[in-house]
Input
Amino acid sequence: MQIKSAEYKASYIDVAKCPKGEVPEFAFIGRSNVGKSSLINYLCGRKKLSKVSNTPGKTQTLNFFDINETLQFVDLPGYSFARVSIEMRNKWDNMIRNYILHREQLMYVFQLIDARIPPQKVDLEFIGWMGKNHVPLVVIFTKADKAGGKDTLQNIQTFKNELLKEWDELPVTFVTSAEKKHGKEAVLEFIEKEARSYYKQKKSQLEEEKENAS
Output
């Protein structure tokens, strides 16, 4: 898949007010400072499409990006950011969960995991919540360039082993590095495949409705 156009569309705090279009969506989420903006920019080949910040908790809304006018990326607020009030954390939590559970055109949630460090409890808990709610998800390990190769591979395998304690089968996983330009092609190929499947299913539904109406 080649991204020819990528534009910021809008930001929302109320899921009910999000765009009603029928293009497939792929959402990105992870702990604060896991590299969501850097990954989105890397995938899109843009340096400043999604604003990169060193300040944790900077993303506070559901941020929509139009990709090739055929699908959307959605940058979700990072979870586990402690330097805000409990009330604010609860608002973010409700917004994120409402979007994930009720957004009809959401194809996959990409949960980003920092490959530099061992498995974190909050990451395992969140992916466990998505699994229990049957949310289609993909795990993307980020910042694979920031640690030694051996440490990175060990952290990734340890994370997978932790998941297998509760999961019968692992979700699809990718390893990426926005700095070293690694993993982009594999992620975009997956997105392209799933977007085509979405449109194929939509076409079949329309044809069936037309046939039933005749």
Strands lie at 6-12, 25-30, 62-67, 71-75, 106-114, 137-142, 172-175. The first helix runs from residue 36 to 44.
